[in-house]
Amino acid sequence: MTTIKIPYGKTFMEANVAEERIEAVLESSAHHYRPEAAEAELVKQSLEHPVGSRRLRDLAKGCHKIVIIASDHTRPVPTKIMAPQMLAEIRSTNPEADITFLIATGFHRASTQQELLDKFGDDIMKNEKIVVHNCWDKDNLVDIGKLPSGGALVINKLAMEADLLISEGFIEPHLFAGFSGGRKSILPGIVSGVTVMANHCAKFIAHEKARVGILDGNPIHIDMLYAAQQAKLAFILNVVIDADKRIIKAFAGDREQAHIAGCKFVSGLAKVAAKPADIVITSNGGYPLDQNIYQLVKGLSSAEATCKPGGVIIICAACNDGHGGDTFYKWFQEAPGGAMEIMDKIMKIPSESTIPDQWAAQIIARVLLKHTVILVTDQCDHQIAKTIGMKTAYTLEAALKTAGQIAGSHSKITVIPDGVAVIV
């Protein structure tokens, strides 16, 4: 027997499985990568040697209003390490700068004060200005034109009024934007919900290039990069983290060149060959990305890439926040015909009429049309998952038993401990 250990919330779920049933364990080599220096030193080195840009301290000279876009509570960005160094770099040449942290909530709920405290720490919370972006607050948004796709580009007014706009974030594989980080701080990070919906339309989500690890020809990425250019995002600090959420590499500099350098590094670590199996076990990498079902599209997409048609996907995720959004959940509540009905409805929606969160419903429906999905959680109402079309279990062992009844008790199993971290 061998023990399978899968991230779950801030802990793990485990199960014992006969060794001969394991087809493969697919992991990013980031988990075994040995960084060249300590976390803070890696950040320091990247700021001292930016890619395709002058140093941040030089860009900050003479600027009055400086806005630093920071990721929200759903992203495991080690801001406590990054933000102090960004502030020190700016203030080394511009001690009087008016600096504001703008939280890139995108389409998510607002971060709570406790979540911001956990992210920034006491010192920054007490001494710095922090504003949480609201994608529906029209009074604090400004229309600056059209995206290449034709959608309206409406962005946070505070960002557009900045003399210098910079961002922090992290780079990982992303299921339809190719990679996270870089330009994503702008779109979807600090734009209007209208802009997010135009970018996340059914046509783009279904596009063959809108897949994990792909930037070239990806229509979603093209829109995002254009938005960052129009917002005049001048400088980024993006990190790469391992399974323990520790920094293993840092990239700072030009919004495009530094991001591409980071994506190449991540791709070299994250690409794994698919090992098709009748049962695939995965997760969303634990907290903070497994707080709701809405976010599970990430782990499910990785499992989808290596699960045989008609096979079973088991995903371990706390989902302590439930479904993750009323508009997302409504798709399943109002679809007695299940995944096929949802897919038919969504694919008929014009780009300009995209409905909030339809993209997540579209991806989950796509997975459900090909596979049985079992959600393993003891922190979420199982009826929510059942309404969405998933089966449920309280333990990984119970899920494996159910999967065995569907796919066969001796069927092969591919394990992807962290579905967010790999490009299958």
Question: What would you say this structure looks like, in words?
Answer:
This is Lactate racemase. Keywords: Isomerase. GO terms for molecular function: lactate racemase activity. InterPro entries: LarA-like, LarA-like_C, LarA-like_N, LarA_C, Ni_dep_LarA. The chain is of the alpha/beta class. The protein has helices spanning 39-48, 56-59, 79-91, 113-120, 122-127, 157-160, 193-199, 202-205, 219-230, 257-270, 297-304, 326-333, 338-347, 358-368, 382-388, 396-407; strands at 2-8, 11-17, 22-25, 65-71, 98-104, 129-132, 141-146, 152-156, 164-170, 173-174, 178-179, 233-241, 247-253, 277-283, 307-316, 372-376, 391-393, 413-416. Strands 3-18-14-15-16-17 form a six-stranded parallel beta sheet, with helices on both faces. Strand 7 (141-146) and strand 8 (152-156) form a beta hairpin. Helix 1 (39-48) packs parallel to helix 3, helix 11 runs parallel beside helix 14 (358-368) and helix 13 (338-347) packs across helix 14 (358-368).
